[in-house]
């Protein structure tokens, strides 16, 4: 397959899976708490448990694919089918109690992992060097933005309890159809099996992983928190909020970034988190329409740089699996932290906002420190193909 067609198929599949990811990340807790009256603590725990299961499945799928790459297309196809069928039930099962919600959540998250890891690991076979990886990461950012814009628009138009089933069902069908675009790539570009020895074992610099976790928890908690601002705050509705967050994330694909080598990329990522430590709490204090847009830019640019670095730092599918594993655990922790700051309310108190603001600053500063140390001390020897 020609590179342009291969990249196009990869982007199409990325948009498809991002429809489910964005909706599950930003809409699920909001819908459960605000539309179905689920206790915020229960919604937060369901979110965390689901992402923990997803993270564990990422690790298992990555290890399995490194040993048996021939089964990748079947695994990805089956995973997307299960994820699409289960996704609407992660909200619509609310009237049947927490056990029904938990069952639907686990089915969705496990199915998603079976599709997500093979899709992500294709980056190493599509990116020959760091500039190519950066271009692909920009494409991922634009694709995520397009998906989130569709979700945000849908939430704006169909954001009431009577209409939400149509929104969730439509997203599931679109994801299932679009996700099939990546299957020819998985068939024609199989990954070579790992040798299974210590040298070839999947891995990533641990400080990069830890710094990524700290930064994701801090910024994602703030991103989820803006959906629950107090009624007295001058802010848009939840659907418009999501659209503005998405717009901020998407424009970061146009930001010029110079990363000639992984060390400079790590230093750049550290600087971005240090800046976010100052900007995030200030934005929360100001509020208004600028808050979600500028917060989206912080979320987008840090995600773009992290994914651009990944093909140069990861070995095999297992390296990608570890990154997505810790990222999803971080997102689960962010959801739990945000609902804890809500303190049983559907919107934040002044004290809750102060806790969220301080936690964001502390997490971003810790991330910046770890990433800076990683740039100074890590042995960055992995190639784009990890071979």
UniProtKB/TrEMBL annotation:
<feature type="transmembrane region" description="Helical">
    <location>
        <begin position="77"/>
        <end position="98"/>
    </location>
</feature>
<feature type="transmembrane region" description="Helical">
    <location>
        <begin position="290"/>
        <end position="309"/>
    </location>
</feature>
<keyword id="KW-0812">Transmembrane</keyword>
<feature type="transmembrane region" description="Helical">
    <location>
        <begin position="208"/>
        <end position="227"/>
    </location>
</feature>
<feature type="transmembrane region" description="Helical">
    <location>
        <begin position="239"/>
        <end position="259"/>
    </location>
</feature>
<feature type="transmembrane region" description="Helical">
    <location>
        <begin position="164"/>
        <end position="187"/>
    </location>
</feature>
<protein>
    <recommendedName>
        <fullName>MFS transporter</fullName>
    </recommendedName>
</protein>
<feature type="transmembrane region" description="Helical">
    <location>
        <begin position="266"/>
        <end position="284"/>
    </location>
</feature>
<feature type="transmembrane region" description="Helical">
    <location>
        <begin position="354"/>
        <end position="377"/>
    </location>
</feature>
<feature type="transmembrane region" description="Helical">
    <location>
        <begin position="20"/>
        <end position="38"/>
    </location>
</feature>
<feature type="transmembrane region" description="Helical">
    <location>
        <begin position="329"/>
        <end position="348"/>
    </location>
</feature>
<keyword id="KW-1133">Transmembrane helix</keyword>
<keyword id="KW-0472">Membrane</keyword>
<dbReference type="InterPro" id="IPR036259">
    <property type="entry name" value="MFS_trans_sf"/>
</dbReference>
<feature type="transmembrane region" description="Helical">
    <location>
        <begin position="44"/>
        <end position="65"/>
    </location>
</feature>
